Amino acid sequence: MADADDRRKYKPLENVLIRINRDIISLSDVEVRRNNAILRSLLEDILIPEMKEKDPLFEKLFTRVFYGGSFYDGLRVKDPNEFDLDLLLRLPKLSEPKLIPDDDVPGYTILKLNNLPAVKRHLYMLDTYRGISKFLLESEERPYLDNNKVRMWMERVVTRALNTFPVCFGQYSIEILQSTFLVKVHKSGPALTLKLRGYMDWETIVMDIDLVPCFEFDVGHMPVQKLLNRNFQKKTFFVVPKPMNNEMVPNNNRYWRLSYQEQERELMGSDRHQYLKPTIKLLKKLKEKEHPFIASYFIKTVVLLEAEEREDDRYWSTSLSYVFMTCLKKYHQYIERKYIPYYWNENYNLLQSMSYSALDNLKYRLGNIIRHIERNLEAGNPYIIQNYLLTDKELSLYKEQLPFYENENANIAEEPPSSSCIIL
């Protein structure tokens, strides 16, 4: 009965949210196709072949590019100009790679090579052995792979490949799809970012491309219960050399972040989950406007956890307004508890590195937003939601697209006091 009451209460938001999602958040099809073509040509036709040419070890280990991130997940809420790409690598089977979980460091794993000398015994793999040997931790007697050494190696491979192109104004000049682009390299976290600038179809093109080296493993290497409980089409997962911001963990360079991006994409892509992706995008839009310091992945995790808890998939096709508001409230509850469990391991708290004061401020802000929306719904003003989702520029565009816009004459409930502002 309560669910039915909530559906009726939030129904006035429906058309507003649908229009925002369709007309403001949705990406331009022309831009999407163009930028995707530029990206794939740069990687598959130009950069990857050059990297293979310059580094025999990369040629032996590289398997494919995984096009990940919000753009390829269909969750991008800003211009389609930022991309997260994983360069997937496979270790030789002869080396007997093994992933070792550590209960004290959930969400991460240690990558060990149980039989690296076996690679050395094959003459045709001698160079591979020498290359992989350079990835090992020097301070450990056991053959653990050092994530920092792998990142540095990948940086050298990319740089050597780029050095084959002419330099213009301190940037690499590369011809892509018959247009000239300037590329410079920026290092951040586990990623190497290619900052690309150019001109095509009478438009200035700006793209940031994150390249992350990852090792790919079959599901059997890390039996996670949620993987075993579902019959996922994708049977592989990745380990990512993401630096661990925890000085209390000794030798933290040996830890690799577990990544189940392909399985998460399957979970979001179900035909039964009509409003799952639109809800994530709307929550991300609210995050960008109100509290951009929260990682977008946390938002996605909250909604995936909600999908797991809701046994009846019909919930996801009730109405966008109902799904959005219930997920917003659930997000608020997680922040209130200062705990968002990692979807694949509930012992890993995604919020663990955030200060209590920041989370408390966010808790109050989200609570005030929810109450303000509901008070305005009672006053007959569903348009108040746009104030929390849209920038001033977007709001102006939204009004232009709605000749019947009613907000000017609506009864507007007073916004909560400004003491709810977030202080970092």
Task: Give your account of this protein's structure.
- With 424 residues, this protein is of the alpha+beta class.
- The protein folds into two domains: 2-27 and 263-403, Poly(a)-polymerase, middle domain; 31-92 and 126-260, Beta Polymerase, domain 2 (2-Layer Sandwich), CATH 3.30.460.90.
- Helix content is 43%, strand content 21%.
- The chain is built from 16 helices and 13 strands.
- It has helices at residues 2-10, 14-25, 29-54, 56-61, 69-73, 116-120, 126-133, 147-162, 225-229, 261-268, 276-290, 296-309, 320-337, 356-378, 386-389, 392-401; strands spanning 62-68, 82-89, 97-101, 108-113, 167-168, 171-176, 179-188, 191-200, 203-218, 236-240, 255-259, 341-342, 345-349.
- The strands form two sheets. Strands 1, 2, 3, 4, 5, 6, 7, 8, 9, 10 and 11 form an eleven-stranded mixed beta sheet that branches. The chain has a two-stranded antiparallel ribbon with strand order 12-13.
- Strand 8 (191-200) and strand 9 (203-218) form a beta hairpin.
The average pLDDT is 89
Structural class: alpha+beta
The total domain count is: 2
Strand tally is 13
- Which assembly state applies to the chains in this document? single chain
Family: Belongs to the mab-21 family.
Keywords: ATP-binding, GTP-binding, Magnesium, Manganese, Metal-binding, Nucleotide-binding, Nucleotidyltransferase, Transferase
Protein name: Cyclic GMP-AMP synthase-like
Domain Mab-21-like HhH/H2TH-like: 277-365
Task: Note the topology.
Blueprint: H1 2-10, H2 14-25, H3 29-54, H4 56-61, E1 62-68, H5 69-73, E2 82-89, E3 97-101, E4 108-113, H6 116-120, H7 126-133, H8 147-162, E5 167-168, E6 171-176, E7 179-188, E8 191-200, E9 203-218, H9 225-229, E10 236-240, E11 255-259, H10 261-268, H11 276-290, H12 296-309, H13 320-337, E12 341-342, E13 345-349, H14 356-378, H15 386-389, H16 392-401
Parallel strand pairs: 2-9
Antiparallel strand pairs: 1-2, 3-4, 4-11, 5-6, 6-7, 7-8, 8-9, 9-10, 10-11, 12-13
Helix pairs in contact: 3-8, 11-12, 11-13, 12-13, 13-14
